[in-house]
Amino acid sequence: MAKKAAGTPATVVLNTERVAHTLHPYEVSPDAPNYGALVAEALGVAPERLFKTLVAEVDGALVVGVVPVTGDLDLKALASAAGGKRAALADRAAAERSSGYVRGGISPLGQRKRLPTVIDDTAAGLDLMYVSAGRRGLQVSLAPADLIRLTGAIVAPIRTGGS
Questions:
Q1: Per-residue model confidence (pLDDT) at position 7
Q2: Rounded distance, CA 104 to CA 131, Å?
Q3: Element at 124 (helix H, strand E)
Q4: Per-domain residue ranges for the chain?
Q5: Where does the YbaK/aminoacyl-tRNA synthetase-associated domain start and stop, copy by copy (predicted)?
């Protein structure tokens, strides 16, 4: 069976699982200050709907945290939600190696090694949320319930600051 041009591992998961989603390309330098706000602006969406995917180490094990770009990852809350005591952001090389994606394009979907995932509870109140589709310059919108199901995520308050 012939397939369309291969997408990212994240889009392959969405298509394989027949999850309703929309891809949103954009152009923002990954080194730009206030990157999340600029991406939201480029896409014309409220920044509260745009989520960043961060890889952290909780008690020595990698864990994914997904939080709105309007705030930051609360490492203590992430550790607690993941059943651990201490958390720190993973180093960039470890995050890229584990996920199979590059910084600025890490998606919670289709990671090379499936990691425990915690999604901030603000996602639960949205009809659509936006996350990286697996490469810089490409976001995907989908229902939060689909992202939670596909990643086997825990939903917990893991953000600081923002709304």
A1: 87
A2: 11
A3: none
A4: 22-160
A5: 39-150
**Selection from 143, 149, 119, 109 nearest residue 129 by Cα:** 143
Instruction: Tell me which fold the domain 22-160 belongs to.
Output: YbaK protein (3.90.960)
How far is the C-alpha of 19 from the C-alpha of 146, rounded, in Å?
Answer: 7
**Span 14-30, mean pLDDT?**
94
Residue whose structure tokens are 């995932």: 117
Mean pLDDT score across all residues of the chain: 93
Chain centroid to CA 33? 19
Tell me whether strands 117-120 and 61-68 are parallel, antiparallel or unpaired. Answer: parallel
Structure-token match 């706000």, residue found: 37
Q: Beta strands of 51-153 (E only): which ranges?
A: 51-58, 61-68, 72-73, 87-89, 117-120, 129-135, 138-142
Please give the sequence-ordered ranges of beta strands (E in DSSP) within 94-153, or none if there are none: 117-120, 129-135, 138-142
Strand partners, 156: 120
Q: Are strands 61-68 and 87-89 parallel, antiparallel or unpaired?
A: unpaired
